Amino acid sequence: MHQAAIDWAADHLSSPLRSVEPLAGGMTSTMLALTTLDGEEAVLRLITREPWRRHGADLARRERAAMVTLAAGPVPAPRSLALDADGSTTGVSAHLMTRVPGRPTDEVDEGTVDQMAALLGTIHQHRPPEPFRPFQSWAWEAKWVVPPWTRHPQAWRAAFSILAGPAPSFRPTFLHRDYGHRNLLWTGGLVTGVVDWVETSTGPVWLDAAHAATNLVVGHDASWARAFLTAYAALTDEPLADYWLVMDAVGFLPPPGQEPMFADPAALARLDDWVARIVG
Questions:
Q1: Closest alpha carbon to 125 in 63, 189, 69, 184
Q2: Could you give the CA distance from residue 3 to residue 211 in angstroms, rounded to a whole number?
Q3: All domains of the chain in start order, with CATH
Q4: CB distance 44 to 66 below 8 Å
Q5: 237-275 confidence digits (pLDDT tens)
Q6: What is the pLDDT of residues 186-243, one digit of tens each?
Q7: Distance between CA atoms of 54 and 50, rounded to whole angstroms?
Q8: C-alpha–C-alpha distance, residues 277 and 273, integer Å
Q9: Cβ–Cβ under 8 Å, residues 63 and 29
Q10: Using CA atoms, how far apart are residues 106 and 180, in angstroms rounded to an integer?
């Protein structure tokens, strides 16, 4: 149960712990909800899962830096409370933060995508004192292999050809870099929390929007992805380049020899059709 990390976190809270509960989600980490005897609520991130664990110190430091720079602004991000980036006390990279209100939801409607777009616009308006690292593409060249489950092999080949060409110019902007409905918390139909800032970067606004759109495709339907992109386009003067949509969609392919990150055949089919649409 990572007792050394829990004891470390408790030392940074206002009173002894009353409860420790696992939180669902978290592809990179073990996430624990901590509640003290006086009612203080916090979340402890422990970066326990490979391949992220080997980069855990950088991920944890980046998340803390993002929360520090966002602390006085309008984005409802958690506040950082303590950091043991190299795990010298906790045994694994650890970040303690406040618990923001709300719960994740898998329900999507017009109000959902409008709020997602508006909040992403707010995030992109943030100007940190120092820029974060340049964005990293998750569509590595090693992934440029036509997937065996596709009905549109030529579309994937076209996508790989697009990525082999030059990237469009863009205005460097503060990015969440893993923005999507799964990293938003909702209360009464309103977004009350944006979590998971370990990939915060500097890059093109449309890459953040593309990632949210691909997640909507995979989790729901392409119509919601298109509605989200339309809503976001009304909030930015940066022209949409399909290159970023392609980059994000290809990033969902697994590295050679590995299974897809999701196994639902319907979700894979939606991703397949999405790629055919954006390269067509």
A1: 69
A2: 35
A3: 3-98 (3.30.200.20), 110-279 (3.90.1200.10)
A4: no
A5: 999 999 999 999 999 999 988 888 888 999 999 999 999
A6: 998 899 999 999 999 999 999 999 999 999 999 999 999 999 999 999 999 999 999 9
A7: 7
A8: 6
A9: no
A10: 11
Residue closest to 179 by CA, chosen among 207, 137, 203, 138: 207
Instruction: List alpha helices for 147-264, DSSP H.
Output: 153-164, 205-219, 222-233, 242-251
Q: Could you read off the pLDDT of 91-128 as tens digits, one per residue?
A: 999 999 999 999 998 889 999 999 999 999 999 999 99
Q: Is 17 exposed, middle or buried (0-12, 13-18, 19+ CB in 10 A)?
A: middle
Tokens 């800032």 label which residue? 197
- Which amino acid is residue 176, in one-letter code? H
Please return the burial class of 12, using the count of CB atoms within 10 Å of its CB with bins 0-12, 13-18 and 19+: middle
Sequence length of the chain is: 280
